[in-house]
Specification:
- This protein has a six-stranded antiparallel β-barrel with strand order 1-2-6-3-5-4.
- It has 461 residues and is α+β, with helices and mostly antiparallel strands.
- The radius of gyration is 62 Å and the shape is elongated.
- It is built from six helices and 17 strands.
- Strand 11 (257-260) and strand 12 (265-268) form a beta hairpin.
- Among the domains are: 15-41 and 57-146 and 166-196, Alpha-Beta Plaits (2-Layer Sandwich); 227-274, Zinc/RING finger domain, C3HC4 (zinc finger) (Herpes Virus-1).
Length: 461
């Protein structure tokens, strides 16, 4: 019995995964801790939705590991969907061994809700356009190991996240019975329904963003210490206690305002003092107004020497106005130059098009003139030909008329001749008819005599 329990404890310890985490704004204070998770090996790979496949000894606490940084708090609340009403609290933390991702600890109101959430979202894609899937693990417990910061904080208990008495958005009490509570990376708590309406990944209280930028380096010497960024063009350079590339950038470009990346304070190289108006409170991380400016002490440290002098503010405003007036003048000159160049280019292109069109018109005009000249020559030739044809036609008509007249005369003579010959022919026919009649009668008597002679000869014979 004892050996079985020992083997069970050893197998359980083998299935426990220890993950170190941290939370909080590093510029104010950072809370560190350890969470003990039940590894994936303890969960059955069966597709059945029965709770018998889930590990024994689990709690209504799960951890979503490796959430992409581009997912905001509102995106994750939308991803959880209908399970939001069963969530008591959520806490966003950073994992020491995972970059560009964060994890979320979620505590539910019952084990049944926890199991259903685990089975529904385990291995599910966060969205259809993202290949990342939801990696869910049951959490046995969460232990906070320490705090480092500028002020003292009471160590939070493992039972729940650090809570504020009221939600900074709706000013209602943060009560788990009325709705889930979400604690951001910087340890500020909100109602889930309130943070769901926040559009980006920054905190509504301190503006701390979970999507941290990459480590900046000097654009010249590549150092990562004592960095300043030009607030005009964004160039990052090292301070005067390194190689002084930030100051050299001001001397070359006259961009006199530079932001110290470590303290987020703005330095004016022209006035040789700090000119920022908002600073981040080391108490709660909120942005507060600074009514005076700090000056740089002889030892190189920024000391805040507060002054309410109106003359200083007027001088500072005058410098700012002069600087931006110069910027506006430069922009105006550049704009006018660009407009002039664009106008000259447009005019040149227009002139080139007009010249091309003019050359084409000249060619067409020359072609038409040559065509007209040829047509005029052809007109003279054809006029001569037409005159000659008319003359020939007149001569032909005249000759035809003369020929017709001669033919008519010949026809008249012929008709007269034919009439005369007809009369002579008729007279001759009459005469011939008379002679023929006489001959006929005489020939008939002769024939009778001849016939009688033949008969008499026959008789004789």
């Amino acid at each position: 019995m004892n050996s079985a329990s020992v083997s069970g404890e050893s197998s359980l310890s083998d299935m426990i995964q220890t993950v170190h985490f941290s939370s909080g704004n590093p510029r104010i204070g950072e809370t560190r801790g350890v969470m003990h998770l039940i590894s994936d090996n303890a969960v059955s790979s069966s597709s059945s939705s029965s709770s018998s496949n889930l590990p024994i000894g689990r709690n209504p606490l799960v951890c979503v590991l490796g959430v992409p940084n581009h997912m905001t708090y509102a995106d994750f609340c939308q991803f959880c969907g209908s399970f939001i009403q069963h969530i008591l609290d959520m806490r966003t933390v950073r994992n020491d061994d995972i970059e560009n991702r964060y994890s979320i600890l979620i505590r539910f109101d019952s084990q049944e809700s926890t199991d259903t959430f685990f089975q529904h979202f385990r291995g599910k894609q966060f969205n259809s356009l993202d290949e990342d899937v939801c990696r869910l693990l049951f959490a046995l417990d969460v232990q906070f190991t320490g705090y480092s910061g500028s002020i003292d904080h009471t160590q939070p208990s493992a039972a729940g996240p650090i809570e504020q008495p009221t939600c900074p958005v709706c000013l209602e009490r943060l009560d788990q019975d009325t709705g889930g509570i979400l604690t951001t990376m910087c340890n500020h708590s909100f109602h889930c329904s309130c943070i769901s309406n926040w559009p980006d990944s920054s905190c509504p209280v301190c503006r701390y963003c979970q999507q941290q930028p990459e480590n900046s380096v000097c654009c010249v010497c590549q150092t990562t210490e004592n960095l300043w960024m030009c607030v005009i063009c964004g160039v990052v350079g090292c301070g005067r206690y390194k190689e002084g590339h930030a100051r050299r950038h001001w001397e070359e470009t006259e961009h006199c305002y530079s932001l110290e990346l470590e303290t987020q304070r703005v330095w004016d190289y022209a006035g040789d003092n700090y000119v920022h108006r908002l600073i981040q409170s080391k108490t709660d991380g909120k942005l507060v107004e600074l009514n005076s400016h700090g000056s740089l002490s002889k030892d190189g440290c920024g000391s805040c020497e507060y002054s309410d002098s109106g003359m200083t503010d007027a001088l500072l405003n005058s410098k700012v106005d002069m600087y931006f007036e110069k910027l506006l003048q430069n922009v105006k000159e550049e704009t006018e130059q660009k407009i002039s160049e664009a106008a000259s280019k447009a005019i040149s292109q227009r002139l080139q098009k007009l010249q091309t069109r003019f050359d084409r018109c000249v060619k067409e005009k020359q072609f038409l003139e040559d065509l007209n000249e040829n047509l005029v020559k052809n007109k003279d030739v054809w006029s001569t030909k037409i005159t000659e044809m008319k003359e020939r036609e007149k001569k032909a008509v005249r000759a035809k008329d003369e020929k017709i007249q001669g033919l008519e005369e010949q026809l008249g003579n012929l008709m007269a001749q034919m009439d005369g010959e007809s009369e002579v022919s008729e007279t001759k026919e009459v005469q011939d008819a008379t002679v023929s009649t006489t001959n006929t009668s005489s020939s008939g008597a002769g024939n009778v005599i001849h016939a009688n002679k033949k008969k008499s000869n026959r008789r004789k014979g």
